Fold these 4 entries.
Entry 1:
Amino acid sequence: MDKDVPSPLRPHCLCVAVPHHTTEPNAMAARAEEEGAASAAASGRVAVCVTGAGGYVASWLVKLLLARGYAVHGTARDLSDEKTAHLKRLPNASEGGLRLFRADLLDYDAMAAAIAGCKGVFHVATPVPSGNLTDPEREMLGPAVTGTKNVLEAASSAKVRRVVVVSSMVTVEINPKDWPKDKIKDESCWSDKEFCRNNEDWYSVAKITSEEVALEYGRQIGLDVVTVNPALVLGPLLQPMCSTSCQFLIYFLKGGPDRMRDKLWHIVDVRDVADALLLLYENPAASGRHICAPHSISARDLLRLLKQMYPGYPCINEESSDDIDNPAPMTSDKLRKLGWSCRPLEETIAGTVEFCEQAGFLGDLQGAPCRFPPVYNKI
Ligand SMILES: NC(=O)c1ccc[n+]([C@@H]2O[C@H](COP(=O)([O-])OP(=O)(O)OC[C@H]3O[C@@H](n4cnc5c(N)ncnc54)[C@H](OP(=O)(O)O)[C@@H]3O)[C@@H](O)[C@H]2O)c1
């Protein structure tokens, strides 16, 4: 696609930089394609790319892909052991199973080199902020939106079979226009982007815009793009750092000074999200969006469940959540009809807490106060 030709995609770009292609990195991508195809062919495996491979969701996906016999090209901004050792230790990672590529989402050429030689792409990488943003354009919107465009353009150049883009429930459930409050939300429901923008909810603005861009780009150029919209993701971690979504649960158990709303939360297990991503890649019947939000529970009911399961923790108190009028939940029926199933919520919570205890994330109950990640008071 010629970057100089105006495209209907441009209005979604939020004034972010257009990727710059040069001859040399294209040669780099071609070389990587030859090497990638050769190494995947030598091992008899189909190569697929996972962006942001070291992250919470992506690490479980890489584990699943390797177990199912795929060769994985994983991208990471930082290839240090701290960020990637857990990937290198995965079963089947050695002997050509896993190749890691240093790539920032804003670096088209680096992304193209990672995607070259792949039959499929799982675009998982997006900043998931655990604190307040000081420069939303640089920290959130640019990487999410331009990053998605870069990945799709590179996937198109590499002629991949399908791109699976990880979107979010935040693109479905936030104040949708013309959607009755008591009507179950399905894939035809879109969050109100202007409402999110006015609320300075930059994570949701970025996710809505990048999902729109992904689906529109796919339609325009005939690239097979499907999206998945996971709920709040919980479950054990493979990487040593705590994810923003697990900090959500930790706050419920440790308690702290922040207030929250008695919101109806949708929750999904990270291992079930990985299953959904692979299913959407492999199942030819998948198309468009797919809500992946099987469990719904209000903040207070979640607190009651946690107190019952883990009476030893101080926990937040019920008065620290404000009443709100919750609309009807979302349905994951479209995904279930493709053959997806999931764990019970209690198993997910037990897996998260057990992991966080072992990793020391739930220790230091008397130390510095735990904080509720501000993003969860916006969405
Ligand atoms: N966790 C949830 O509750 C949840 C719910 C719905 C949807 N999602 C979506 O699921 C995806 C993964 O989220 P997660 O929970 O696994 O978060 P995560 O662990 O923070 O993973 C995010 C990944 O994106 C990478 N990334 C961020 N900015 C980047 C950039 N500029 N260039 C390249 N890579 C970049 C991060 O790399 P670094 O390690 O270098 O920062 C990390 O690998 C995201 O698209 C998120 O929006 C998550």
Note: Residues 53 and 59 are 6 Å apart (CA to CA).
Entry 2:
Amino acid sequence: MIPAAPVWFDALHVGDVIVGDDGALGFAYTENWLATEGAFPLSLTIPLENGVHRSEIVSPWLANLLPEEEQLYILTNSLGLDRADTLAVLNEVGGDTAGALSFGVRSDRSAWAYTPLTESYGVADPEIALERHFEDLTRRPLLVGEEGVRLSLAGGQRKSALAVLDANGMPVLRLPDDGDILAIPRHGAPSTIILKPDNPILPGIVENETYCLRLAKAVGIASAEATVLPAGSRNSICVLRHDRRISRTGALQRVHQEDFAQANGVPPGRKYERGTLRGPDLATLLATGRHLPPTDALTLLDQLIFNILAANTDAHAKNYSVLLPVGAWPRLAPLYDVSTVLPWPHVVQYFAQNIAGKKRKPANVDARHWDVIAGTVGYRPADVRKRVQDLVDRFVAHRVAVTEAIKALPGSSGGYVEEAAGLVEENALRVAGRLRRKENSGYGCGSRG
Ligand SMILES: Nc1ncnc2c1ncn2[C@@H]1O[C@H](COP(=O)(O)OP(=O)(O)O)[C@@H](O)[C@H]1O
Ligand SMILES: [Mg+2]
């Protein structure tokens, strides 16, 4: 067995990915990390214990850090690596990952550097520079191959992770404001925002996702801070990273996180429940809340309800995450990657998990199904129904204000905002309507299907 990739949290050596004689990957924490006060585990599935953690857990955990689908395909092709060779790919791109860890190369603060997009693309207009950046990403996912850039993020959408600098060139943890500068992090520097450009296959996705995330916040569910960023002839959604923080001394730091595929020990290919090898079902996702404080477990239920009400059918296990901060209990990460599928009939309309034992579309969610969901976590059905109704009421109450706020953002197109808002509300009201109908007709009696 040979240590093949050191794993770093800032300058601290957390452990090593190890390759066995048979090529199987393992992971071992360093003595130092195990003795460090406030040390966090890589994963809820990889506890802070001596010895080599097994490949069955470690391999899928690592694979979940990499991009997926076409993004992984183009990236590995340009690196001349096999898609299945997770460790080799991570050694190339695993400098700035989801969470706090850097693979291979130590993150040395004195080497951190940021290059403004305008400088990188040699254009004065920041919007045009961003447009060029998005074109660049079609050839080089996550800027693979760019000197000093080692970035990895999961997901199938084209995306970038950049840093926001203030007018003095200092990194700041906020969505870009007037006078701020977007910059490419290099040599171990952390990114602070994630950007996803528009996508002709999913028209209006930028407005759609921004609407859903801001609606969630408006109804009281913590969600990624999101805005629309114009980029010449196109636009993009920009979210603030929740796995970054500013320390008391003003230093930018990474905060560890893992997604629910990682927290449940499944590889990225099993993020959906459907498939020959089944991924996590709703009960498993909700049961992940047992690691969280009770208020966060309730928020997890809220996130799940929100995704059903908003018809976010793509809410698979990688679209829920848990934060593993230094010296503190695990917390639920804010809601992220939410869009309503309803404007796109060509995209799979079934939810990522079965609801009450069957695959279902948003229009088919019935009162009885909420009772089954409640039962899986031991909540009272009446409480869950009440929570659903309460959230629907809030959807309606906040629709206009959220719609107007997003329509007013430069780069957003009002028609798409209205479309997403209308479809989300229609879906939520349909769900609420069924809730009432069932209650009036006698709870639990004569239900079908
Ligand atoms: N606001 C955020 N803060 C920190 N990490 C995030 C945030 N949003 C997304 N991520 C991470 O980036 C990954 C990809 O982002 P996501 O929006 O889910 O992209 P995609 O639409 O391609 O699935 C997520 O799985 C998660 O690990
Ligand atoms: Mg996602």
Note: Residues 109-240 form one domain.
Entry 3:
Amino acid sequence: MALTLLRGMRTPISFRSSTGLFFTVLRPRLARFTTRAESAQATEAKAAAKSIQLATKEASEQKLQGFEAIIGIETHVQLSTVTKAFCSCPYNYGSQPNSTICPTCMGHPGTLPVLNEKVVECAVKLGLALNCEISMTSKFDRKQYFYPDLPKGYQISQFDIPIAKKGYVDLDLPVEFGGGHRKFGITRVHMEEDAGKLLHSESGSYSQVDLNRAGVPLLEIVSEPDMRTGIEAAEYGAELQRIVRYLGVSNGNMQEGSLRCDVNVSVRPVGQSEFGTKVEIKNMNSFSEINRAIDYEISRQILLHKEGQADQIVQETRLWDESSQKTFTMRKKEGLADYRYFPEPDLPEVVLTTDYIDEISKSMPELPEAKRRRYENMGLSMQDVLFLANDDNVAHFFDSTLEHGADAKLACNWIMGDIAAYLKNEKLSIDETKLTPLELSELIASIKNGIISGKIGKEILVELISKGGTVKGVIEEKDLVQV
Ligand SMILES: [Zn+2]
């Protein structure tokens, strides 16, 4: 009761104790959105793709040899809140080590955590986006374990009552990987805090600890074991990344550790109902690494089965090594009992009202799946649809161009072709260029009306995207009218 930090309460979340809420705001989105250049290249290779699809399918079936893989994923998403989950420290990736810490996030005795309201808001947003049931009452629990970068000796998490559960995610596999729609179950979404980070010396003789990340809010998303291949798992991860970016709750950047996927893989003979021993894989820094790590692990386990050494598949954590393209043992996995969870005595229950959830629900943007279906209904190909909906900045640019009267297919061709190539080359995102949706629609109209040729149009685009200005201005300035 002594430590009550109450800066203001905007939304009707109530707590069953005297502890107040720490009101913070989301910082502007920091994400640098990359474009899906692979998809653009894939357009050219459309004909080749079909035969590759068949070959890939045959190869993977041959590799499975009567076995099937069961894959589930635990994803940690770091929230882009201004302050940490239970104290007023900020968190900025790459800050001077131990510069954004306080007695609370360092776990000093006598300090008390105070929940950041924005963490609850982000959790509800993500829960709704993943079609989950939202728990009107949930609570925090302590997960006990010792680790040098965990100063308190426990992690505040949610154990038996997560804030959201029983959801699903819809996605479309890329055409070059065989295509098709998939629906994967979401078991739960819960709130927790991050640990610090160990920095190992080059000689390996000592390690240093940076506690800046300790106490940073995370959402953990646990999937149902619904994936069967590396590509399905990678696309599931990519869809979560799109969703958190669309929602603005995280920059979803894998290199910075803002989005981390731990994958559980087991294999079993086709027809067997019980699961095989599952192995966890960590340390993957991209979706392509997730894909390759899983496919390697599936092959490794099937080989052990075939050689009569299935007992060598043990419950363990393995790391992916990008240089050798293999997984290797890191440690034997602790069971649930090792964590000795119990309810966090320093935090009240989180009680939500239907008004609060309705308000968040109304503020939700159009999500990737809804966008894909809308673009599909415009008659665009799945390749176009996936490219446009992959990045919400690109989707927004496309939508705005259509609002200015441009034809959907033509606008899409410009965005996926010349514009995407320019962005890739200059390492820019579409909202960082001088080109506006209005001028792109003017450019398309000028070609359509025969004022300029398509070839001249490409030259004008380069001017607009690098220097800005208007289509009319560039045509006059360079005297480009078609005779
Ligand atoms: Zn702190």
Note: The first helix runs from residue 37 to 44.
Entry 4:
Amino acid sequence: MKPATTPLNASPAGSHAWRPDRFMLIVAHPDDADFGPAATAARWIDEGSEGWLVCCTSGDQGGEDFATDPLVLAAMREAEQRAATAIIGYTGVSFLHQPDGGLANDLALRELLVREIRTFRPDAVLATDPETLFHGDAGINHTDHRAAAIAAVDAVYPASRNPMAFPWLARDGLAPHPVRRMYLFWSNHPTVRVDVTATIGRKIDALRAHESQIRHPERLEARIREWAREEGQEIGAEAAEALRLIVIDEDPTDEPGATETSDDDPTATS
Ligand SMILES: [Zn+2]
């Protein structure tokens, strides 16, 4: 229950308040972003951020019938994700068309992700936690989720900021770009919680767009609201999303002579 001192529509104390101007979600499958931090993305976009979604695969193994044409399924899932992306309000979505069930953190995928990062130039990248092999004591994290997660980490650092990584990219005009933060979801070790009371409904609407993947649509809303309620208890919010924050660089300051990475500046916000 909300503390009585928390005014309506205000973030309660303890809610994570930092917001990127630009952020990118990197996920394995269509629907991962929407089961993940979609309400955080929607809140940030409502408050002025620009977001971009990258799906490494198009989910061509996400069915129950071996006779399904995987190309037909991939096209359907891309359409579902485009609809969900519009509901959340992303500026756009990229599909990298890697094989579902066979995603590998190789140099080819890293180059594709570095291209995406250097093109959109996000302050923060969101991905699943690459250290999640099991979900607590229950369930195994999908191999593609783990591959996309570690690929996102390796693309963020050091490749995206290193001009000598894939040097043809810089020669083609894709200048190196330092991502300052990563927010990891589906983590066993979350460190921040974002109050998403105002946008949890959009997350549910976005999830409904993944019609091919939702087996019990009548149970979806209750399930998502219950998860968000549990995450919100710690900060006294009706709904929250839990994330593991990794700060790579402090934010640049406006002070003359301030450096891009103001590690030694005690006034830098974090
Ligand atoms: Zn997935």
Note: The mean pLDDT is 92.
